[in-house]
Design goal:
The structure holds 2 protein chains of 2 kinds.
Chain A (H helix, E strand, L loop, with lengths): L1 E5 L2 E2 L22 E2 L1 H15 L5 E7 L4 H11 L3 E5 L9 H15 L3 E5 L10 H9 L2 E11 L3 E8 L2 E8 L2 E5 L11 H7 L4 E4 L1 H4 L8 E8 L7 E4 L4 H11 L4
Parallel strand pairs in A: 1-4, 1-6, 4-5, 5-11, 6-10, 7-10
Antiparallel strand pairs in A: 2-3, 7-8, 8-9
Helix pairs in contact in A: 2-5, 3-4
Chain B lengths: L1 E6 L11 H11 L4 E6 L4 H11 L3 E6 L8 H12 L4 E7 L2 H14 L3 E11 L2 E8 L4 E7 L4 E5 L15 E6 L9 E2 L3 E2 L13 E5 L10 H10 L2 E4 L1 H5 L20 E5 L5 H4 L7 E6 L6 H4 L2 E4 L2 H16 L2
Parallel strand pairs in B: 1-2, 1-4, 2-3, 3-9, 4-8, 5-8, 12-13, 12-14, 14-15, 15-16
Antiparallel strand pairs in B: 5-6, 6-7
Classes of the chains: A alpha/beta, B alpha/beta.
Chain lengths: ~250, ~325
């Protein structure tokens, strides 16, 4: 089974994230990390291999030079090769464009299954896997808390707003995993050393033979919300519960 | 200019909870709201009646013969209707799990740009301009596109004020030719926590618990205060990771973003991971043992104390006031 796993390098969610006030683009100058939910997608592919299946895992990322970190991590965890789409022309690419680029790279590599995290922590659209499925002409089985892979099909539990629902689909397909899917293992030393020798292919937009997009999103303006100013802090002297109740009354909250 | 607004229909054939938001969002762009509903078999008449009762005067009902196919019929329906709508400026779809994937696939199908998770909509110089609240409200961004139509996903609870329109309804029923594209098969949704509490995303009051609660059993204190206030229950990522609360309660950069009237944080330190999910709440109250907790800098009223002392007293005080 050939599995293409999508990974992304994103700003650390435990730090404040910044938008460029001119372009509205996310400031990626810090040290981006592999988006953790994407590691769970890698883990799902590795787990299937551990069960004895003949699995080839290709890690794919579209991004600036910093996306390399995410791909090397994927290789260290056990992916067999990496593809990095890196092109100045893709800076600020919207979802329509990004889905076209990734689908083209996936089609070029060939696939039985595409795996990804369900939603990136920076973009938070949660749509890209479904859009890629549309471009590849396959089903999407996304937002899965759990995934079982069988030779020519997959099964899982999909998390929707109202609850969960059982899903199954025939391969080839695109699947995505939520934060509730099993956590990734840690790469071991051997994995880290082997990663440097694994095939790493870099592609540009020209290599993918893409048409110009029919439409594109445009940022018009960016406004920063003023810093929130705190109010009072008190230390509980045995009456804090009562004082909060009074505060809520005074503020018309109850 | 024409705007299509998709209203969600449950498998049981009822209008989804995002309907009022969808109709209000559409009205912000075009007072003549045109709703599009993809209906399971034999439900179109009831959906039509429900929309009519709400005061929608133009609606398009597409009958979906293919149950249990994940989104392919809905994508076909929206793309088909879009193709035959002249001067189409925008397609509005709820920003739910299903809705945003519908939006994504439709956008690819028809070659449209996407504006994601809109909290504001306007027309400027004949073009649709979308407002987004980014990184937990740290930024407000407006966007447009280079071509029409624009596919927009709409944040639940962000729009209100749809008024019933007068006049006879204009109903369009579109048969969906058997949508045979590949699709995952889905079963019936098993309801989340089955509770009567308000939905976290749109609740006016939220009571959240963090690692400071110490255990899943102790988390009941959060629920108790929430129930006293009629609030939704939230949790920090740390509390969810520790197993004190379900993932559906998570508030933060990788959970739900909330903007309630009142947010009470219990045993939460206020790492940026969490703050980004609630910092635009109108009033914030925090109770924490840690005098250096970052959340205290944000709170309108911060209490340095033990939640197990403060909260029971608060619950008693609230009940006493209620009974006066």
């Amino acid at each position: 089974m050939r599995i293409v796993v999508l990974v992304k390098a994103v700003p650390d969610t435990w730090e404040t994230r910044v938008l460029d006030p001119q372009t509205g683009r996310i400031d990626r100058s810090g040290a981006p990390l592999i988006d953790e939910v994407g590691e769970r997608a890698i883990e799902a592919a590795l787990a299937h291999r551990d069960q004895g299946a003949d699995v080839e895992i290709i890690a794919l990322a579209m991004g600036p030079e910093s996306a390399r970190e995410a791909l090397i991590k994927a290789l260290a965890l056990g992916a067999d090769s990496a593809i990095h789409v890196l092109d100045e022309a893709l800076v600020g690419a919207d979802m329509l464009r990004t889905s076209a680029v990734l689908a083209a790279a996936i089609g070029r590599a060939g696939f039985d299954l595409v795996l990804a995290g369900n939603e990136s922590t920076d973009g938070r659209g949660g749509m890209l896997p479904a859009m890629i499925a549309e471009r590849l002409g396959v089903a999407h089985a996304t937002h899965l808390n759990s995934l079982e892979l069988h030779g020519t099909s997959l099964r899982g539990q999909r998390q929707v707003d109202a609850g969960t629902v059982a899903v199954d689909a025939d391969l080839p397909a695109v699947a995505s995993l939520t934060e509730q899917a099993p956590e990734a293992r840690f790469p071991n030393f051997r994995g880290i050393m082997k990663a440097k020798k694994k095939p790493y292919e870099q592609l540009t937009v020209a290599d993918l033979g893409l048409e110009e997009p029919k439409a594109a999103s445009v940022v018009r303006a960016v406004r920063t919300r003023p810093e929130r100013v705190g109010g009072t802090t008190i230390v509980d002297d045995g009456t804090a519960g009562e004082r909060i109740a009074q505060f809520l009354v005074d503020n018309h909250q109850i | 200019m024409n705007v299509l607004t998709v209203v969600e229909v449950t498998p049981a054939g009822q209008l989804g909870s995002t309907t009022h938001t969808q109709l209000s969002a559409a009205a912000a762009l075009d007072p003549e709201v045109t709703a599009l509903a993809v209906c399971p078999p034999d439900t179109a008449a009831a959906i039509g009646a429900a929309l009519s009762d709400l005061g929608v005067r133009r609606f398009i009902l597409v009958e979906n013969p293919r149950l249990g196919a994940l989104l392919t019929p809905e994508v076909d329906a929206v793309a088909t209707v879009a193709a035959r709508t002249p001067d189409l400026a925008a397609i509005l779809i709820p920003h739910t799990v299903d809705g945003r994937e519908l939006a994504g696939r439709v956008a690819v199908r028809i070659g449209a740009a996407i504006a994601c998770d809109a909290v504001g909509l306007e027309v400027e110089d004949g073009a649709v301009v979308v407002t987004h609240s980014v990184f937990g409200g740290a930024y407000s961004v407006t966007s447009g596109a280079t071509a029409v139509p624009l596919v927009v996903t709409v944040r639940a609870g962000s729009f209100s004020g749809f008024d019933a329109a007068a006049g006879e309804p204009h109903i369009d029923r579109v048969p969906l030719l058997d949508a045979m594209g590949p699709a995952a098969r889905v079963g019936v949704v098993t309801s989340g926590d089955g509770s009567d509490r308000p939905d976290l995303r749109t609740a006016a009051k939220v009571v959240s618990g963090g690692r400071g609660l110490g255990s899943k059993e102790n988390f009941a204190l959060v629920e108790q205060l929430a129930d006293t206030l009629g609030a939704a229950v939230g949790a920090s990522r740390a509390a969810v990771d520790a197993g004190y609360a379900p993932h559906s309660a998570q508030v933060g950069q990788t959970g739900t973003t909330v903007a309630p009237e009142l947010y009470i944080a219990l045993g939460i330190s206020g790492a940026i991971q969490h703050l980004a999910g609630m910092q635009t709440a109108k009033t914030i109250v925090a109770v924490t043992k840690d005098p250096d907790a970052p959340i205290l800098r944000l709170a309108d009223l911060g209490v340095v104390g033990d939640v197990f002392d403060v909260v029971p007293q608060l619950v008693t005080a609230l009940e006493a006031r209620r009974n006066r």
